[in-house]
Amino acid sequence: MEKEGHQNNSSSNEQDHDGFTMDEIPDLSWSSHTEYDVDALLGAVDQVNTTQTDDDEDQSSHVSEQTPSNRTKRFTMDQIQQLEAQFRVCRHPNLDARQELAAKTGLEERQVKACGDENKGIRQELGKLKAENEELKQRMLNPICFRCRNPTLATQPTSEKRRLLNENARLRDEYVRAKAYLDRLIREGAERRASPSAHLHLGGSATLVSHAERAMEELVMLATKGEPMWLPAMDGETLNHQEYVLQTFPGLLGLCPPGFVEEATRESDTIRGTAMYLVSVLTDANQWCEMFPGTVAYVSSSNVITGDSSSSHDGLIQLMDAELWVQSPRLLNRSVKFLRFSKKLSNRRWAMADVSVVDGVCGVEPGGSSTGCRLLPSGCLLEDMSGGYCKVTWVVHAEYDETSVPSLFRPFLQSGQALGAYRWLRCLQRQCEYITVLRSSLVLPSSSSSFSAISTLGVGRRSVMELARRMTASFYAAVSGPVTVPATSSVDEWRVSSGSGAERVEAVVRLAVWNCADIMPGEPAVTVLSATTTVWLPGTPPMRVREYLFDLQRRGEWDAHADGGEVQELGSVATSSRLHGNAVSVLQSTSSVSLDASCFCILPDVDTDGTDSKVLILQETTTDVSCSLVVYSLVEENLMRGIMDGRERSNVFVLPSGFAILPDGHGRAHAGDTAATNSSASAAIDDDHSSNAAGSLVTVAFQTPLPGNPDTGAFEDACLQLCHAIAKIKAAVGASDIIPV
């Protein structure tokens, strides 16, 4: 058989190239790794004239080209299918199997063997190609410089591509809104020219109702739809602008004003309370402000467009004015005028839609878009659940003026952790827990038997909690800035520093001198110096700062009233059963602190008879993933005992100081959810540090009464108090740097 193959090769090599056939394929260098029996692969040939003498070879060659008997015979389709079927069963058949297959297909045994060897060669070649392809992919992922052969900087096209896609979507959205706004102006102008009386006949109320109803439809769509309206992201989900524009074209508010940026967030969770109760709170301006003290600075409901707020809230549309704030003196308040529309969707479901009113909507003064914030259809969906709980889906879709926001705060606002859905829902959850404890008659644990009244008597507990609520509200006004600054107030800004070298701390301090009676009605006419500042701790998670400030064993490090001594907890009320660390506490320092030495509280009705009175510390700590607070004030001991006994002391004026700890927006908002409810501090810190390597924005406030005209010494003392606390925080949490905002 091998001899026959050699005869074929010899005969083929002597043929002229005019009659070159597949039998005459030369031995190419690129295929030298695999030996191919071409005759066996292409089929048998007629060997009748191959045994002639050399003298007759040329003549027989020409004859073979003329006759079809010497042409190559290829495998039939049936033979190929049978061979492939056999090789799928067994890649390397033995001699008996090859002979059986040859007899079955009408081929020779050597042809069957050659076909198997060819399959093996193809597989080897395929393996080499795959390996080469993988090597090329690795080289593309790890490029090197062709000149120095050193690795180049790793490119990250994903983040840049994502940024470009978002920018493209934003520009497309602006274009669509501009076109829709222009079309609407043209259409409304034509309608007014055609029938000027018809537009006046509609009146402002009918147009506002239509505006609110469209906002309700859009809110329900945003709250209930999943993909592709909301796309999954590393930290929750993000709004798909292309899909949003497609579904809401032409939009309600028209073109986004210059300098404004958009934020869209959505969050869901269970809240303690019924849907009807939450609707009644959200439709009452005073209750809404009390439910969100850290978010709502001021609110007024100037007009009821339709419905009756005193009875059923279904179909109620209100025109509301509100100012929103964040706990930092460096951020301006957001002012927004909007419609609030409450609607009962089903037996157990309610919806509350908010939407701004701007130019082009009847009954509203022009210039609404210049307030610094516009609410696109936002709000919440409320659904009653069993056990006295309610499922709340909160949506915030807003546009705000970013030109007035300091650069260090922009990631914080863009992430939605400042005034996004996450912040609103966490505040609602915490306040509902607080109200439940306030109204509860259950006995809560106390850490001291001498102050057991704080936990055993419901009246005493409520009195202490109400005083703590007033104290925290005063703290919010101090660190966020009053809504209106009277003419008698003055505000200055100082840049101060303390320490040297690695321990040097710098801060930009806002010093405000104001009269309590002008800012907070009902308070005594006391002149107060308020010093506040915000610093940025990059790379230091908020939970680490919170755990340090919550630790009573280390309070003497930063609290000047503890004077380096220990602080004991005499009694406490846990204000949340789900969130660890939320409590109202009465503390006592082991160091000798007298009322005359204190500058943190004013007690106009306490007569000390010229003697020093012992003081206690009233403190409220609140925490969730969006914000943590440590607010405290000194209170005379006998007065505090009277409050815990249930005696009404509404004329007590507390002057709080404390800390507000906010995320800086660089980390993931949801990373600390588990840690926030974890009772183990160390586990919480470790989990937060590993999964959410973000920074903190820490606001520090120090307040003291001024007995006379303010002087430079009082200002310097207040600034040094802030720098001392910041330096202790930096050392305790291991912050590498502190940047003044």
TrEMBL record:
* Stated family: Belongs to the HD-ZIP homeobox family. Class IV subfamily.
The UniProt annotation gives the DNA-binding region as 68-114
* UniProt protein name: Homeodomain leucine zipper family IV protein
Family annotation (InterPro entries) = HD (IPR001356), HD-Zip_IV (IPR042160), HD-Zip_IV_C (IPR057993), Homeodomain-like_sf (IPR009057), START_lipid-bd_dom (IPR002913)
Residues annotated as domain Homeobox: 66-113
Q: Which residues form the START domain?
A: 212-437
Chain positions covered by the region annotation Disordered = 1-28, 51-74
Q: Which residues form a coiled coil?
A: 119-188
KW Cytoplasm (keyword) present: no
Q: Which SUPFAM superfamilies does this UniProt record tie to the protein?
A: Bet v1-like (SSF55961), Homeodomain-like (SSF46689)
What domain of life is recorded for the organism?
Eukaryota
**What species is this protein from?**
Zea mays (Maize)
Q: Which Pfam families match?
A: Homeodomain, PDF2_C, START
Compartmental location? Nucleus
Compositionally biased intervals (Polar residues): 61-70
What molecular functions are annotated in GO for this chain? DNA binding; lipid binding
A GO cellular component annotation in the UniProt record: nucleus
Q: What does the UniProt keyword field contain?
A: Coiled coil, DNA-binding, Homeobox, Nucleus, Transcription, Transcription regulation
**Could you read off the lineage of the organism from its UniProt record?**
Eukaryota, Viridiplantae, Streptophyta, Embryophyta, Tracheophyta
The answer to keyword DNA-binding applying to this record is yes
Quote the PROSITE patterns the UniProt record gives: HOMEOBOX_2, START
